[in-house]
Amino acid sequence: MAEIVPFPKPRAPREPEPLWRQLVGAELRRRRHERGDTLTETADAAGISPQYLSEIERGMKDPSSEMMAAVAGALDLSLLDLTSAVAEGLAPVAAPARQQPSAFALAA
């Protein structure tokens, strides 16, 4: 006779994680407001239109790395500063890290 295997229990639904572009946009807006800069001032310094910067800040656009570097630079931020700040904001949302076997354990 065949063994009856019960169905696995369904996972509890998780809150959807925010998109990277939304988190980056929110951080850029926060930093711009902290400095007291207008959208136009920051966009001019970055060499982009105020409309495009607004779309980036609202998470509507997924800018290239060159564009992100330009906007970050206009706010006196490095890409590392920006990325670290966004990653820190993800920490409470991130799922617990899974225990991964080390490369040494796999080689044994």
From TrEMBL:
What is an example of a Pfam family matching this protein?
Answer: HTH_3
Q: Does the keyword Signal apply?
A: no
Q: Name the source's superkingdom.
A: Bacteria
Check the record and name the CDD domains matching this protein.
HTH_XRE
Instruction: Indicate the segments forming the HTH cro/C1-type domain, all copies.
Output: 28-82
The protein's matches in PANTHER family, at most eight in alphabetical order, are given as: HTH-TYPE TRANSCRIPTIONAL REGULATOR, METHYLPHOSPHONATE SYNTHASE
> What's the protein called, per UniProt?
XRE family transcriptional regulator
Instruction: Please tell me the species this chain comes from.
Output: Microbacterium bovistercoris
